[in-house]
Recover the amino acids of this structure.
């Protein structure tokens, strides 16, 4: 990977308290919109499949697989967005990169709510939807690197894990907001209304949300100018070796894969799995997803704060091992047709909480892996590559394998296997990374 030219970065030591809070809010709000949108696409996957990917007489399962294929394709454009927009953020500045990202994401998401369906324009409909998903993937790829860089670089001493955890916390808030909107629409609209026009509402809601995010990001403090040498020239920064950057990328993907796979399995893919595999109603499936996301949200900030005290490695390894051990037992509780509803709800809440132990310290862990001049690009690429492979393909893999094998335990195996590998990669973290200054 080509090393970007030196760019302006605001060191944590110079960030005023009000600037730190402003950076935290502005970084979080765009991430909230991004995950709200990705959540509603997952929650409405069966509806979107019927509207865009299932011609008259087509199989519902085939349509769902095509919908998830479009979902996965957007994820594979995330690394492109991370590389291009991350380089922009490293060279030009964090603020202009974050402004560009939120405009792109908001515009593409709102346009999905206006798209004509397959019944109106035929085969052009799924292609247009996929094009907008690609634009979303590009913007999402740039969002994480820029937002996490701003949040961790401005964090007060000893609170980098907590500040970074807000990125993951807004993931949970975005998914919960998407689920709440889906539950309300499913409750107040008839199935024909929901399929006819109701599914468009949550996508159109991103327009006012995006305008709020844009205003907050325009108010971000400008990046600090580079330090000057006594003769007035910018101080040279050590150039990161390309081999070290590539090694950090590979390690970052390995450390992220369990978080990515388990998170999407339990927090996004679950509604479609419960409907298509277990025959659960749309409303009950969404309720289960809300409980999983509540568990996720409940553990993120405490996990980030705890990682500031005892280290990222301890907290994240604990989360990965818990998922590896408990994924199948918890899934069996959900599958039991005679099981009490409160037991199933508790199982879903616990699954989400285990993922939150990885997601809380995760952003700070990635920020600590890369020096300032490649931080946006490096951590954005690690996150995007992991999500492209292990999150974006989760729905496609699970739906296709369950359909071919008839094994309803596939989601549990998928989450457990990826978290087991991730635990090994996380053990390579240094125990004192949380006490070291960002490079």
């Amino acid at each position: 990977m080509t090393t970007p030219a030196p760019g302006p970065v605001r060191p944590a030591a110079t960030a005023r308290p009000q600037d730190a809070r402003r950076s935290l809010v502005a970084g979080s709000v765009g991430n909230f919109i991004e995950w709200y949108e990705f959540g509603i696409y997952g929650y409405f996957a069966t509806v979107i499949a019927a509207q865009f990917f299932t011609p008259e007489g087509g199989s519902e399962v085939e349509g769902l697989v095509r919908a998830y294929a479009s979902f996965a394709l957007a994820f594979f454009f995330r690394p492109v967005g991370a590389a291009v927009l991350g380089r922009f953020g490293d060279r030009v500045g964090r603020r202009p990169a974050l402004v560009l990202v939120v405009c792109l994401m908001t515009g593409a998401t709102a346009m999905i709510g206006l798209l004509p369906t397959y019944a109106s324009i035929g085969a052009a409909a799924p292609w247009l939807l996929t094009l907008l998903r690609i634009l979303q993937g590009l913007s999402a790829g740039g969002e994480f690197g820029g937002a996490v860089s701003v949040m961790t670089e401005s964090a007060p001493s000893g609170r980098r894990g907590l500040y970074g955890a807000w990125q993951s916390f807004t993931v949970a808030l975005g998914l919960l907001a998407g689920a709440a909107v889906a539950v309300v629409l499913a409750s107040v609209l008839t199935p024909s209304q929901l399929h006819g026009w109701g599914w468009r509402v949550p996508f159109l809601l991103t327009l006012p949300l995006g305008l709020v995010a844009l205003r907050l990001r325009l108010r971000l403090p400008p990046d600090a100018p580079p330090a000057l040498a006594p003769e007035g020239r910018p101080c040279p920064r050590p150039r990161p070796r390309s081999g070290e950057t590539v090694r950090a990328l590979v390690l970052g993907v390995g450390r992220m894969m369990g978080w990515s796979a388990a998170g999407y399995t339990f927090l996004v893919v679950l509604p479609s799995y419960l409907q298509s595999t277990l025959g659960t109603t749309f409303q009950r499936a969404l309720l289960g997803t809300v409980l999983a996301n509540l568990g996720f949200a409940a553990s993120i900030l405490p996990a980030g704060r705890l990682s500031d005290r005892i280290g990222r490695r301890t907290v994240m390894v604990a989360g990965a091992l818990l998922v590896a051990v408990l994924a199948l037992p918890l899934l069996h509780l959900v599958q039991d047709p005679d099981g009490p509803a409160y037991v199933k709800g508790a199982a879903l809440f616990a699954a989400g909480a285990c993922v939150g132990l990885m997601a809380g310290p995760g952003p700070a862990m990635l920020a600590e892996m890369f020096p300032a001049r490649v931080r946006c690009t490096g951590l954005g690429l690690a996150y995007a590559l992991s999500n492209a492979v292990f999150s974006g393909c989760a729905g496609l893999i699970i739906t296709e394998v369950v359909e071919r094998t008839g094994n309803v335990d596939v989601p549990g195996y998928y989450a457990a296997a990826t978290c087991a590998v991730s635990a090994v990669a996380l053990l390579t973290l240094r125990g004192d990374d949380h006490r070291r200054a960002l490079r």
